[in-house]
Design a protein that fits this description.
Elements lengths: L2 E5 L5 E7 L2 E8 L5 H16 L8 E5 L5 H18 L3 E4 L1 H12 L11 E7 L4 E7 L5 E9 L6 H4 L4 E4 L15 E2 L13 H9 L28
Parallel strand pairs: 1-4, 4-5, 6-9, 9-10
Antiparallel strand pairs: 1-2, 2-3, 6-7, 7-8
Helix pairs in contact: 1-2
Length: 234
């Protein structure tokens, strides 16, 4: 089983070809706002490196959001084009679940069998707002993704019951605000990556949980807000 995974929800532009056994090849960059320039060449490089074509794939998987409106549009459009043009299924991967898998790969000791510790993957939204969900140690989604404004009382109901690990790009601005006992923040930033989509994408493919290529829309959560470019100084 071979799947092309595409991650464009954040400032990271990432694409990977994965199988049940691991990641065959990956390309990614943290250059902000470069998704439109980098994504298609990255995918071509993956095909050249592995010697396979789009029609050899079993599916194409897209990180479904929420996240950057523009990034989601770019990634989804390309994923749909590959799926439709090659006659292969489209898979939508929960972005927060993929972020959780990346955390597990980075900090396996944090996920102890039978642990009641909870995990809150979060990506940065505007100001003191984040997109986040709550996931148990076995990967079960306890609370689905939502847009949450962070203050001193955020997640207090969870922290009263035990330890909670906050991670992802949104966690960086929460470190100084969420200070209740039991709140844990990894030292290193855990970001989004196409490689972290492997397990949920393979599972979805094996269970034939596919999206309608024509009608699938990523999870935006918010309406797009256009901003005017700042005037340059004379």
């Amino acid at each position: 089983m071979m799947i092309l995974c595409i991650e464009t929800t954040s400032d990271i532009c990432s694409a990977a070809i994965v199988t049940e056994h691991g990641v065959m090849a990956i390309r990614e960059s943290g250059e902000d706002r470069e998704h439109s320039r980098l994504l298609a060449p990255y995918i071509n490089e993956l095909f050249n490196e592995t010697g396979i074509g789009s029609k050899d794939l079993d599916a194409v998987a897209i990180s479904a959001g929420p996240g950057s409106y523009t990034g989601l549009r770019i990634g989804t459009s390309l994923a749909k084009g590959i799926a439709y043009g090659s006659g292969i299924p489209l898979i939508a991967v929960d972005t927060m679940l993929a972020l959780w898998h990346n955390m597990v790969a980075s900090y396996p000791s944090m996920v102890e069998p039978g642990s009641d510790r909870l995990f809150v993957p979060m990506t940065d939204a505007r100001r003191m707002e984040v997109y986040c969900s709550v996931i148990a140690a076995d990967g079960t989604i306890v609370s689905p993704v939502s847009a949450t404004i962070i203050d001193e009382e955020s997640f207090s109901n969870l922290l009263e019951k035990g330890e909670v690990l906050f991670f992802g790009s949104g966690a960086e601005k929460c470190r100084s605000v969420i200070t209740r006992p039991g709140a844990i923040f990894p030292e290193e930033r855990i970001g989004c990556s196409a490689a972290a989509m492997r397990e949920p994408a393979i599972k979805a493919c094996s269970e034939k949980r596919f999206e309608d290529v024509a009608y699938f829309q990523p999870l935006y959560l918010k309406e797009f807000m256009a901003t005017r470019p700042k005037k340059s100084l004379p």
